[in-house]
């Protein structure tokens, strides 16, 4: 069957995680997160991130991001983010809703990345009119970005410094955190709190979980009453053990890194194969598991007629996204490249 | 092992539902609810409720309730509900948050049930001061109630009529919908839209699912943009097929009714056994799977020392709740009754 | 012309305040509160209250109350207040809206007053279910209460102590602050911050201003970003000097106390006159400028036929409110008493 | 005394309006807008706009704009507006707060004006991702714009048509409505509802009132429960007669048009005088009472040293705004031009 590169959300759950759910389904357990598995997940996160952090298991990345905004940004506050960030373009106003009226101040930036200079200027601009402007309270980075690129550790650090100097907190939207981490080859701590990140939306769903994300808060002092915010938003899952079991298996034995490394390898293989194609142009550097290409619409249609699936970027005719996943087979990549080759240059 | 009667949320997932999750974990599927299982679930609900309704699968009852409020009640609106309703006491202000400021107008009422007279008077009262008062827009009933009692079909109909005559919509919080339905022995349609219910929070988690609920809207005209509200609240699950698979198995072959009927039978058995106990007083009629008893705190402690688990009602010393579930064994009930008997009358 | 006792909001502006507006209407002045009159008003408040407080001039008491709630109570928080408080019954959900979803926990209490015992119990109750309940963050007292009664300094202090011990802030809704103060004969400081009040909605409109209120925050540390909240709510008046000019004249030369003392004297005269009437029963102690009476509806109609105006309390047939004001004439009171006497005992 | 061109908000109230306030200060009047003056104001607006509209008197333009957004745009909705609009840059997130989370989608456009093409494209773009994007519900135009320019009747009509075709309502922020109207010389009806405007923030404060604005809704069906929204926001003024008296005098005998025409004439005189200056560059066409100029900062400082006051545009060094008002004297303009001439070309 021809490959589906449309979205990592369309892929199945990794077998190890399904097994963990089955294992968790024994006997009774305290509800609302007071169970032993949730406790263990917290320990795992502390170990992986090498610090004593706070963990809020969740079932949706939108919830993780929106809670991070609400926790740091009052109604009269503002979030600085990229104009193409998921936070701004794909969450139907969740940050504005959760915060009760905060404003997203969006910036352009090459390859989906924010730049320290424009962040600094935007913060300054907001300051010119005093109480008449929403107050910048949070800088939100996406790692990997909406265009599949990855900030280096230095880039994260520099942006965080700009934010902190102006009194803003720093949030990382890590819907594809594992892919970014594997791309950099650094530690989870280095890519986050050691570089100045205060809150992390840690994604697992796209990388093999069923529905499991977590909002991590690196300084426990910043986590006050986040539990109540989660409850009020309807995101305190009653049978929490089944969310935590996913995260538990995900983090055990470096499964998460293996899954992401595989997806990244498949993306690299795909990107390398596409470099030779005349009719397909790589648009952004391929750092993780996403590849953005420019193709004639007719060319894309031919590929779809062959059964391949990928995503036409909304509002940008000719721009397509290919996403590889933890379960993408090498043969699927190769079959796609063969199909490209067969059509290419005609 | 001595039984745990603390909460139906502490029980495991029914095997049929675990198996459905495993079956769903094959190949790719459209995300965000565009998959075939979600489509099938919609058909099942239409069949069960004998009408062409709208279904919004969710993972939390709080979200279902709060979305129902937001959909019907503007910020300047009010919800009429029981003073002991979950909506008011246990959701950390989710209805107020989702609606952007609606007010809950709470009423007393025997056994956790609202009464038509007091509802009518409360609506009238709100009308006396015009724009100075929040406008009643929704009547929310809980079926089964927080105290385990069940409204008769006639009672639901009478309350709904009072609401509709005054222009309010009617919501039913059905966290334990199946238990109530089995108790009444009527059809799902009779207990809801045929009696005037407009929106239903249909619970499955407490009755054997992992995390699966649904907000049902009986008139499609009332469902406009609920999809966007769900997304904005972070409750549009990306790998939706895994929520829908739970609901699919739950509704198939009357599994949901079997599970609830069993839980109710166990509650009846337990309640009947308790009637003879001198030291345990049944407080409310037992209609579904919840039993409220009054015991001396010392007596309760002895039972806990024996390993039994149950819930001390917050703020009411001496009031305890026992909940049976789809997986409660007859032997567990009997063992508990034996323990009572051994302690009783000392 | 027969007197109008319906509401102090129906009365005209005191001449001294009209003159101050005319005086303020000279030349240009900085907008949005950076003018000299606003600066002077701040000094006057500091002097009157004998402390270095923060002042936010406003044009509506609802805004003052709602901003006080928003400043102290997050969306997941709760406000404890009397079930008959204006905050709960007459502001169309402004506290819920401004806070983004906080809940009002209402308590009964004789003569419109909260009692320390029930406040303490309500706070405890909210604590029983942890994150499932909105967190009490604010105690709001009304001084004078909705029924015209006045808390003694000791009563305020005792309630504030209960609140503070549990970590709640204390707000006083002083829509009729001056009337209460004159009634007690204590200092403004004693009735507020020295007794534990943290935020005060200081009303002037009902006592002779045109539209002028102020939110006072006694500890500057509690006032952070209240300016932005005020702006975001649309309550930062551009030509602020005209709000401040009212407050300036109101506070100058004890005008505010004179106006309130007069209104109170008229209420006392009226109440004393009513004590003899057989058909008119005084319902609450008369402490300030409001009198609540019980009369037959037919009796009330006769008075209205004579041209007198007063307020039938919503939802309580037979209960009427009479309000005296800064401009009520002794002759108006006496004429009304004469009319009562003429009808009485028939 | 050298002129103050900083803001029309810094100017005093027109004498006719002060007199109207004094006249209104007689006897008692129903509160909260049930008085005779408020009734008369409604009639005046209907006459001026030649239609049977709904009027909501207010004291702040931010409130008028934010209520217009809340009335038309749900939390999951979006407002399309200019990136330099007051709505986006100067109201501290009031639209987001009032709507409970709506998003402002901002567009560039020459001279502060939106362009039909980019509006159409932005609406289309929002549609590409379905429920994942906030739904455009309102187009907000500013007339006159933030840069003092004025849309022609045809331009308003064309933009409104684009909006209506896509199901959006049309709002006009008319903080300087009278100046725009005098500039076009058309009727108030032509510039608004006859061109497709659904809601108008009608400003009076900047043009000679003390604190008086009004939200006008041209189709009464669109005004449902706006009264409750106003109350919940704390903007239902208790002694409403004093807001209405301002609007009453403002609209009587074309006072509002006279005041604006004068301000515009002064701006024209000023702009014409500046055309000859070498060191001062006019940046935008001068249509109403605002003039934007580019000057060296040193040059501006010299003018300030002479005592003149004007506004340095935030974040744009070298850009200055000069605003004339209803009370600007010809001699003030000439004196300023003389000062420019004295400094110019050095």
Say what the CATH topology of the largest domain in chain A is.
Aspartate Aminotransferase, domain 2
The count of β-strands of chain A is 11
- Major β-sheet strand ordering of chain A: 1-7-6-5-4-2-3
Query: In percent, how much strand structure appears in the residues of chain A?
Result: 15-25%
Biggest sheet descriptor of chain A: 7 strands, mixed
Distance linking N and C termini of chain A: 25 Å
Determine the fraction of residues in helical runs of chain A and give it as a percent range: 40-55%
Enumerate the spans of chain A where pLDDT stays under 50 for 5 or more consecutive residues: none
How many domains, in number, for the residues of chain A? Answer: 2
Global Rg of chain A: 20 Å
Order of helices and strands of chain A: HHEHEHHEHEHEHHEEHHHEEHEEH
Tell me the CATH architecture of the largest domain in chain A: 3-Layer(aba) Sandwich
CATH superfamily grouping of the largest domain in chain A: Type I PLP-dependent aspartate aminotransferase-like (Major domain)
Overall mean pLDDT of chain A stands at 97
Number of helices of chain A: 14
Secondary structure category of chain A: alpha/beta
Question: What is the assembly state of the chains in this entry?
Answer: homotetramer
Overall geometry of chain A comes to globular
Task: Tell me the greatest interface.
Answer: C-D, 51 and 51 residues
TL;DR?
The structure is a homotetramer of 346-residue chains. By secondary structure, the first copy, chain A, is an alpha/beta fold. Chain A has helices at 15-24, 36-49, 61-72, 86-89, 94-99, 116-127, 153-165, 177-184, 188-191, 226-232, 241-251, 255-275, 297-305, 330-343; strands at 54-58, 77-82, 103-107, 135-142, 169-174, 199-203, 213-217, 281-282, 290-294, 311-312, 319-323.
């Amino acid at each position: 069957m021809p490959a589906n590169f449309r979205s990592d959300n369309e892929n199945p759950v990794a077998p190890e995680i399904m097994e963990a759910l089955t294992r968790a389904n024994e006997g009774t357990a305290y509800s609302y997160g007071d169970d032993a598995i949730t406790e263990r997940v917290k320990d795992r996160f502390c170990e992986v991130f090498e610090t004593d952090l706070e963990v809020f298991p969740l079932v949706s990345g939108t919830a993780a991001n929106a809670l991070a905004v609400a926790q740091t940004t009052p109604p009269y506050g503002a979030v600085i983010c990229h104009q193409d960030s998921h936070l701004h373009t794909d969450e139907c106003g969740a940050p504005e809703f959760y915060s009760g009226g905060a404003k997203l101040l969006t910036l352009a930036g090459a390859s989906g990345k924010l730049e320290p200079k424009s962040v600094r200027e935007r913060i300054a601009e907001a300051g010119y009119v005093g109480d008449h402007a929403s107050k910048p309270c949070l800088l939100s980075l996406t790692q990997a970005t909406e265009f599949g690129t990855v900030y280096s550790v230095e880039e994260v650090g520099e942006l965080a410094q700009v934010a902190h100097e102006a009194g803003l907190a720093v949030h990382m939207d890590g819907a594809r955190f594992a892919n970014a981490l594997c791309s950099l080859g650094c530690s989870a701590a280095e890519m986050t709190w050691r570089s100045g990140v205060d809150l992390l939306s840690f994604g697992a769903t796209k990388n093999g979980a069923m529905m499991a994300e977590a909002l991590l808060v690196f300084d426990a002092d910043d986590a006050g009453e986040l539990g109540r915010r989660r409850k009020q938003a309807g995101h305190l899952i009653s049978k929490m053990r089944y969310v935590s079991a996913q995260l538990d298996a995900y983090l055990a034995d470096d499964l998460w890194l293996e899954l992401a490394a595989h997806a990244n390898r498949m993306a690299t293989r795909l990107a390398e194969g596409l470099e030779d194609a005349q009719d397909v142009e790589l648009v952004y550097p391929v750092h993780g598991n996403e590849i953005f290409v420019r193709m004639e619409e007719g060319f894309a249609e031919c590929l779809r007629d062959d059964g391949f699936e990928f995503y036409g970027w909304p509002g940008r005719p000719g721009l397509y996204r290919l996403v590889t996943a933890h379960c993408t087979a090498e043969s699927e990549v190769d079959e796609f490249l063969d199909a490209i080759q067969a059509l290419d240059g005609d």
